[in-house]
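chain below, 186 aa
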Amino acid sequence: MSLDSKLEQFKNKMDLSISAFSKDLSGIRAGRASTALLEPIKVEAYGSLIPMNQVGAISAPDPKLLTVSVWDRGLVKNVEKAIRDCGANLNPSVDGQTVRIPIPPLSDERRQELFKLAAKYAEESKVAIRNIRRDAMDFIKQLEKNNEISEDDMRKLSDSVQELTNESSKKIDSLLAQKQKDILQI
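prediction:
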């Protein structure tokens, strides 16, 4: 495996960490109705737990309402129960095969909880990126130890890895700041 492809592999891992963080943030309710709020919820159906988006169509017809059009009439009660029990403080109502979920306004206390949750996700992502950085540095040091690269090359590669780490960390900070801004605007 070439050195460039190995470095590209480390960069891709960092990008995946950023993508995972972004997905985590999309699940944090910022006051507006977002279909991402319901996607991680599992519904008991057909003897197992199935993701919400596999039992019905999730939509956000307006900023304060989510709907789930359940495909199987027999699962409507299970969908309602799963939403009620998910811990997101939601109170669904059933209208035929459609479950309507009004999104309540955020209290100051809840905003603070969301701030902390977003910061926790950011820190977890930064830890993952630092672990990737450590792996990359270990790889570079091993190459130098085995005399596959010179000490100067080792320093250049180490600087490149550190630069990637800094860029990834800045992206996470930027995403976190945007989410906190969204939480405050509601």
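The mean pLDDT is 87. Helices lie at 3-26, 76-84, 108-145, 151-185.
thats it, cya
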